[in-house]
Specification:
146 residues; 7-stranded antiparallel sheet; 3 helices; 33% helix
């Protein structure tokens, strides 16, 4: 298993930060390289929400199906995806600190196919950079909208 963990402080209310990362429509507004989001199913919020996300990754587009598997309002939301022979487990956590909010993201990659076991460790530097960019985009969005 490979893991990426990053966190930052956001000068915005906890509810605003959580709402941005926990609801794909808001996350899409915050993260400019998310090009399209397509809901899959009737559930639109909380556990069981499924959607297809297309984002720009360098010079190409990548599409991923994600599902919310854990949701505790204003605390944490977990998204799971099984793409390319790897289970991607992303946990966003929020907590109030002073006048702001600490946002953290822990992403675990669990390859279950041979090729993925070889390529995922090589991709982790690029993935760390992308995850950090996402959180900076959320910070800028929340601080600009507060």
């Amino acid at each position: 298993m490979s893991r990426v963990h990053t966190e930052l402080m956001i000068e915005a209310p906890l509810e605003k930060v959580f709402d941005t990362v926990a609801h794909i429509e808001n996350f899409q507004k915050a993260v400019p390289h998310i090009l399209r989001v397509e809901p899959l199913g009737e559930i639109r919020s909380g556990v069981g929400t499924r959607f297809r996300e297309t984002r720009r990754m360098g010079q190409r587009e990548a599409t991923t199906v994600l599902e919310v598997t854990e949701y505790a309002a204003n605390e944490r939301v977990r998204l799971i995806s099984d793409e390319g022979g790897t289970v991607w487990d992303s946990l966003f956590e929020t907590c109030s600190e002073g006048d702001g909010t600490r946002l953290s993201l822990t992403m675990d990659a669990r390859p279950h196919k041979l090729l993925s076991r070889l390529t995922v460790p090589l991709m982790m530097r690029m993935i760390r950079s992308a995850v950090e960019e996402d959180l900076v985009a959320v910070k800028e969005y929340c601080e600009g909208a507060s």
